[in-house]
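## Example record

The block below lists the input lines for one assembly entry, exactly as stored, with component labels intact.
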Amino acid sequence: MSVIAHDVYAGDRTPARRQQPTGFGMALHRAKKGLRSPTPYLMVFGIAVWLFAYWLLCEGLSLPRFEKIPGPVTILSDWISANPQQGTSIYTPDYYQHIYVSCRRILIAFVLATALGVPLGLLMGWSAKVKDYTFPLFETLRPIPIMAWVPLAILMFAGYETPVIFLATLASFFATTLNTMLGVQSIDESYFRAAGCLGSRKRDVFWHVVVPGAMPFIFTGLQISIGVAWFSLVAAEMVSGDFGLGYLILSSYVNSVTVPMVIGMLTLGFVGWFSSAIVRFVGNRLMQWHVKALAMQGR
Amino acid sequence: MQSQIFSAPTVPTKGAISIRDVTKIYDPDGAQVMAVDHCSMEIAPGEVCMIVGPSGCGKTTLLNAIAGFHSITEGEILLDGVPLCGPKHPLASQASDRIVVFQNGALFPWKTLAENVAYGPMVQRRWPKAECIERARAALKEAGLGNVADKYPGEVSSGMARRAEIVRALINEPKVLLLDEPYRAMDALTKQIMHEALLEMYDRTKVTIYFITHDLEEAIFLGDKVYVMTTRPCRVKKVIDIDLPRPRDYTTLTSEAFRLLVKEADEAVHEEALKAFQAGEREMA
Amino acid sequence: MSAVTALPSQAPAPRVFKRRSKFERAVSSPRFWRGIAGILAFLALWEFGAWAKAGLGLEIPFFGKLPAPSAVAAAAAEVVVQPGYWWSWVESYKRVLGGFVIAMILGIPFGLALAVNKYFRDVFFPPFEILRPIPPLAWVPASLIFWPTNEMSIIFVTFLGAFFTIVINVLGGARTIDVRYLRAAQSMGATQWHLFSRVILPGTLPSIFTGAAVGMGITWNVVLAAEMVSGGGSQAGGGLGFFIWSSYMGGSMEHIIVGMISIGIAGYLSSALIRVLGERVMPWRRAF
Amino acid sequence: MTTTAAKPTAVTAPVDHAAGKSRVELKNVSRGFGEDWAREEVVRNLTFEIKPGDLTCIVGPSGCGKSTIVNMVAGYDHPDSGEILLNGQKVVGPAKDRMVVFQETALMPWQTTFDNVVFGPRLRHEGSRPEIEKEAHRLLEKVGLGEFKQKYPSQLSGGMQRRAELARALINRPLLLIMDEPFRGLDAMSRPLMQEFFLRLFEENRRTNLFVTSEIEEAIFLADRLVVLSNRPAQVRAVIEIPLPRPRQFHMMSSPEVFEIKRQALEILHDEAMKSFGGAAHFAHRGPAEHEARA
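Predicted C-alpha cells for the full assembly:
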C-alpha cells in the first residue's frame, strides 16, 4: 500500500462536526456564555467601586488632603463642558494642540529609533565582530537612566523640540536595538544551516532568515520601545517644552489648576495605550505565521 | 503533469561518498576532545546508509563535515571522486548537492510550505520566481501535501512538516540527502508511517541517503547498510548489510529475516548504549 | 506591559574541561579586547571632538558640544572628595529603596492574589489596567499636591513606577506555572495552602526577580525626575538628580556628566544587588 | 479481535504488599472537549479493567486520547458520563492512592531531588522526620540516584529525572501507579535500559500499574495485558494478553511468539495511525485545553 500516492494524509479528515457557525454567530455565542459567568458583572462592579471610593474620598466626604485632588464629577463635568472652569476640555483647541504635539514627537522619535535601531541590532546580532566592538559600549551607556540625560540634552540642543525628541529617541533606541539583537541571536542555528544547504548567498540569508526570524523579538522590542518613548517624553516635556501633554500636566500644577492636570494624565494613559495597540496590531498583521503557530499551540 | 522531483534514473550513478580516515578533534578551552577517530566509510551511489550510535557519540560530527558546517582535523571526504574537504581545505563548502534534514526540523516558520520548497530553486535562480512556486506546489502535491501547501509550518502536524522538508530538499535534485535523526521526537506509530513515506520517496528518486539514528529497528527497516558506531570517540564498530527486499512496509517489521537481523545487531548496539549510559552518569556526578 | 525580554539562556558549553578561570579566559579572548577597543574609540572620538573645537574651530556634531572626557575626569576628581556628593548618593538611594521596598511589599501579594483568585482578579484587575498606561512621571504633580511633604511624594511616585511592573510580572509568572507541578502536588495530598506556598510561590520567584530588575530601572528614572522637578531649590533637596539639576543651573557640563556617570554606576549597583539576591534565593537557577 | 488466551503468568512474585493490589474499572467512560459546535469526543464508551497486581499497557496512536484517560483515572479531569472505580470506590479527585509519572518530568525545579522525593510524606506529616528521610534514602539508592540527592532536577539527565520521579511516586505507597508515556523523549538507546530497570522494580512487588505508551515493543516487553485503543475518539479495539513469563528478559523479545503478538497489534495500530494521520494528527499536539486546572 502506498502511503503517499493518494494524498492520504493531506485529505480533509477532520472528524465530523456540527456546522461551524458564522463569525457573528460565534461572537454571539461567546457573548451569551460570557454573560452567564460572573466575570463581566464583577468587572463592572470593580470599576464602579473604585470610582465610588474615589468620589467619596475626594468629593463626598472631602477628607483632608483628598479634597485637594479633583473628584470624578468635577473632572468629567469640566472635561465635557463647552466652558470649562479650569480652561481645558474637549471643546478647547489647546487640548488637541497638546495631544498633537506629543504624538508628533513620539512619532518622529519612534520612527528615528526604529530606523536606526533595527538595522544596527540586526547587524550586531548577525556579525559577531560588530557585536564584539559595539556591545560593551552599549552596556556601558545603558545603565544611565534616561532622565539623567535631560539637562545634557537641553544644553546640547537648541530650542524646545530637539531635546525632547532626542530623549525619546534615545530611550527607544536602546530598547529596539537590544531586542533586535537578541532576536537575531535567538534564531535557531539550523535555519542558517538549512539556508546554506539550499544554496543561499549571504544576501539571501539576510533577507530570508535573519530579518523574518528576528521579527517576533523586534516587535516585542518595539512595544517596549514605544512605552519608554512615552515615559521619557513626559519627563522631557515636563522639564522643557512649550506644548505637549507632559507640559500640560506640569504647567497646570504650576498654575494651581488641578483638573487639566488629571485630564492630561488620563489622556496620556489612553494615547499611550492606543499607540502600543497599533504596534501590536501591525506586528500581528506582519507575522501571520507567528500568530497562527501560537494559536495552534493553544496560546 | 511530468513529475517534478520523483524521476529516478534506472541505475543511480551519482552520490558516492568516500570518507577516508577522518578524525575530528574539538578544542574547547584548550582541552582536546576527540569526537571522531580515524573513521572510514564507502557509500555507493543511491545507497541508504544508516549510522547507529548512542547520542553524543560523534556521528553528527561526520554529517556536519559532509554538509560543510564543521571542519575536519585529518583525513578527507570525497563526493563522486571530487574532494569535499581534506588536508588543504578542512571545511567543505555548503552547496545544494548535499542537503540536510535536521533533527528538530528547519522549515522556515515564516514561509508557507510552498514558499519553503520554492526557496532553494529561487535563491539559485533556477527558474523565475513564479515558476519556482508553481513547481513547489506540484512537488508538494505529489508528496501528498497538496492541500496544505499554503499553510505555515506551525499550522500543520510535525509529520507533514517533516515530509515537506524532505520535499524541499529533493526539489533541488541533490546527490546526497543527509538526515540527522529526523524522526526522533515522534511517537513510534507516526514514525512508522514516516518511514514508509521516506522509502517511497527514495524508491522514486534513488538519491543517496546518509541517515543518523540511534534506533536500531529504524536503521534496519530503512537501510541498505547499517554502520554501528562506538561511543565517543566515534569509530565504526560493525557493518551490517541489509538484504531485505524492497519495497518494504510495516509487515517487513514482523518478518523472520528482520527478526534475525535485529538479533544480529542488537548485542553490539546494546553494549555501546550501556557504555554511553555509564559514561553519562559518571560525567554528571 | 509587554513581555520583558530576558537574555536567552545560552546552551551550556561542555563543562568537563575547565582549566582556566573565567577572568583568564575573558582576557585571552579577542572579544574582550574588541570591546575595550570599541569603548576606547568612543572616548577618543569624544576627546577629539572637544579638542577639535577648541584647537581647530571645527565642530563635530554631538561630540563637539561636550566637554572633553579629560575635563570630565578632572571635575570628577574634584567632586568625589566632597562629602556633599556622597550625601546625594545616600539621599537618592534612600528614596529608591524606600519606594522600591514598599512596591515589593504591596505588589507581590497583590499580584499573587490576582493570579490565584479569579473573583479577585475580575474585580481588581480592570481599575489596575486603566491606571497602568499612565507614565509614572505624570503622577509627579498630583502626588506633590496630595502628599504633605516632598519626600513622601517622591517615594510615592517611585513606588508607583515599580509597583505596576512588579504586579504584572508576578501575575504573569504565577499564571504560567506548569500545571503538572500543581497536579503532582495535588496527587501527593497537598492542600490549597500547600499548593500556594510550595508550588505557586517558588514557581513565581523568577518572575518576581525579573519584575524587580525592570522595576529598579524605572525607579531610578522616577527618582531622578522627581528630584529634578521638585527638589530644585526646595527643602527636599539633595540626591543625584538634584546634583545634576544644580550643575545644569550652574551651567557646568562637566559636572552634569559626572552626575550622569554616578547615576549609571548607582543604577548598575542596585541591579547587581538584585541579581545577586536572586541567585541566593533561587539556587536552582544557578545549576547550569 | 480479542485474544484472551487463558494463561497463568508464572506468578512468582511474593504477595506481601497488600497495598499494591488494587483493581481499577472503567465503565462506559466518555469525555469530550470544545465549544458546542466543535465538540469533539476524545474518549467514547471506554470500558476495561485493570486487574490487581497487573501491569496493563494502553497503546494507541498519538493524540488518540490516552492522556485524557490518564487525567481521568488520576482524578484531574472528570468523565462526562460513565464512572471510574478504584477497588469499587468511585474516583472523584486526585489523591495519594493514585500516583502519576508524567510524560516530561514534573519534578519541581526549585527543590533538590531529595526534597522532591520527601515532598508528599512531609506535607501529610506521615511518620517522623527520620523515618521519612530513611525511606527516601532507601528509594533513591534503589533507583541509582544515591549520589544525586542534593542536585536539582535540571542537573540530572533525562533518564535520571524519570527515575527520581519514580522514587517520588513510590514513597507515597500508591494503590495504583500511572505512567503516562514516561520514557518518551529518551533516546532509543537509553530507553531499553530504563525499561529494564522499571521492570525489575515492578516485578519486585507487583504494584498495580497502568502504563501508557505508543511504542508497541515497549508495551509488549513490559505488560501483562495490552489494551489497544482506536484513533480518536478512543475506544478499545483489542485486549491482548502477553503470555511471557516473568522476570522478563530482553532475549524474549526476539522470540517468534512475541513477533506474532507484535504483528497482530501492529496491524490494528497501523490502521488506526493512518486514520489519525491526515486529520486528527493535526489536532494531536494541541490536546484538550487545560480546563480550570487551578483551584
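Residues 1-18 of chain A have pLDDT under 50 and may be disordered. Chain A has twelve helices and no strands.
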